[in-house]
Structures are given as structure tokens and as C-alpha cells.
Specification:
Blueprint: E1 7-16, E2 23-29, E3 39-40, E4 45-58, E5 61-66, E6 76-77, E7 80-83, H1 85-91, H2 96-105, E8 108-113, E9 117-122, E10 127-128, E11 135-136
Parallel strand pairs: 3-11, 6-10
Antiparallel strand pairs: 1-2, 1-4, 4-5, 4-6, 7-8, 8-9
Helix pairs in contact: 1-2
């Protein structure tokens, strides 16, 4: 990287379901082109963000300065189906508490399978990918 040249790096952050809480895996990507992004079969959600970096000279030594994560995209959900509380009750009557919680929050529910049926509130402003695409495992 040239001295004082500003570079913007783009990353994708995958959310991986776990037993107690979700974990994330981050990888650098060339751009935010969702159509060419290989979706992880282990994940149900991702988002993009950028990091800005530059090289400066401090006392004759080249040092890379990096910004915090910035310019986040909305959360993008996939690998599941989006349900209203009524649809959830019809398909999964045992999930009444989840349906009531979604009604209280005025949101839909994402149903996905990660070893077992899982349910996630679908927040306002999030995006759901409806397209079928190739899905690959992430390490």
C-alpha cells in the first residue's frame, strides 16, 4: 500500500447459530455483490461492513492505520422461511410463546434449521433473500 493512499476494504460477517449464543465469522470480499456471494450453509444471516486503512510514516517507520468497522449494511437473512405469528402457530403450535413475542414486537419470525428447528425474530429494516442460490460451508 502506498504511503497516504486510502484503501477501503469490504467484509462480510456471517452469523452462525450455536447452542447458547450466535458466533460470527468475518471474511474479506471484493464487493457487496450478493448475486455472486457464496452463501454459507452454516449461517442464517450476514451483513457487510467496510474498514478504511492507510499507511503513514511515524519516525521513519511505516504504520498502517485502520478505522473501526463502518458503513454496515442491513442484516440479510436467508436459509429459512419468513413467517407471521399466525403462520408460526399453524405450522408449530408448540411455539406459542415465540408467536406471542413476535406479536408484541410487531415483527415476523424467521424459521431455519441448524441441527434442529430454530426461530429468530425478524427485525424491522432487515432483508430476506428470496432467491435460490448456491450455498457453501464456511470454515
Amino acid at each position: 500500500m502506498d504511503k497516504n493512499k486510502i484503501r477501503i476494504k469490504t467484509f462480510v460477517e456471517w452469523t452462525i447459530p450455536d447452542v447458547v449464543q450466535h458466533t460470527t465469522i468475518t471474511e474479506e470480499v471484493e464487493n457487496r455483490d450478493i448475486e455472486n456471494l457464496e452463501l454459507s450453509s452454516r449461517s442464517f444471516r450476514f451483513k457487510f461492513f467496510d474498514v478504511i486503512s492507510t499507511i503513514v510514516d511515524i519516525d521513519g517507520e511505516k504504520v498502517e492505520l485502520r478505522s473501526e468497522k463502518r458503513n454496515y449494511s442491513p442484516d440479510i437473512y436467508y436459509n429459512g422461511e419468513l413467517l407471521t405469528p399466525e403462520e408460526l402457530r399453524a405450522k408449530f403450535p408448540e411455539q406459542e410463546a415465540v408467536a406471542r413475542g413476535a406479536e408484541k414486537e410487531n415483527c415476523k419470525i424467521l424459521h431455519y434449521i441448524a441441527g434442529r428447528d430454530r426461530f429468530q425474530f425478524f427485525p424491522e429494516g432487515a432483508v430476506f433473500l428470496k432467491r435460490k442460490t448456491s450455498v457453501v460451508a464456511t470454515t
